[in-house]
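fyi for ur records
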Amino acid sequence: MPAVAQSHCLRVRRLTKVYGDQAALDDVSLEVGRGRFITLLGPSGSGKTTLLMVVAGFVTPTSGQIFLDERDVTSDPPEQRKFGMVFQGYALFPNMTVEENVWFPLRVRGLTRRDARNAVRATLDLVRMWHLADRLPGQLSGGQQQRVALARALVFEPHLLLLDEPLSALDRRLRADLQWELRSLHRRLGATFVSVTHDQEEALSMSDEIAILRAGRIEQVGSPHDLYARPRSRFVASFLGDSNFVRGQLAGIEGESFHLRVGDLSIVQAGSPHTAARDGSVLLALRPEKLRLSRSQPGTVNVVSGEIEDAKFQGTSHHVQVRTRDIGTLAVTTPAWQSGIDFEPGRPVWIGWEPDAGVAVTES
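which gave:
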């Protein structure tokens, strides 16, 4: 196994997969650059796993094409695509040792155990599992089994590594640890990774890019930061993290900002009201952590008063529901160490935010 793998790009062009009268994929196009780590993210039934299975060759598309670099691999069987695959349930052979499991892909390619030993050891060293090479899968923890599954997918130097919910079977702490390890492994190898998950935190922490799917279509593609900070639609803003949604009436444009009227409240928002509806209304997404909660009126551009409705303590932060007259209930996330606020229901508070805290999004 080389220290740095040869990387390839993947292009998916107008893929459609229809089951009966239901389109699991609906005219999907996507490009993954060489050496990139992209995550396909979406709710159940969004088409993310179907897309991965079509790329892997396990599902035949109704129409569309798949390219590895410039080569059309749409009609190639899975074994000819040379894609490594890590399944949700690991899929290790229970009667084979760790070493035998990792050797297996090389064995089916005609390499004896002796000839494959150096490659197997190098790959197990890569995932820090060589010291357990003689163990059976049943003698390993979930995290160790996942490392073996990764080694087996990498040992034959695949053109792409495909990961189907790779961490979903692990507990929260172990999942967080392996997120770091997978990210580090990707950087060391330089290979192209395509992963599927429904876990937003996992997608944000590991990926170079995220493709958000909904009902068989791609809603938005971008870096984790761009998708989180600049979602285009209400769906993306609500699926990738938490958001408050405030609808106001466009009341004027001034330079590189615009004004919204919400009841008796005037809101200044940076940017362009490009999502304004025909009736002149604009929908804003406001992340809870970008709102400032205080006992006295803050010196921010946008300010609204309210009272505590409910609050949850989550260790590092308080998640607070604040009822306001003009905007309704707003969710606010405030660091626990600097709150200085009594979160008793009915307590009067102020919420403030800057013009660049929000983003205009489409309703759908």
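Residues 242-361 form a domain with the OB fold (Dihydrolipoamide Acetyltransferase, E2P) fold (CATH 2.40.50.140). thats all i got for now
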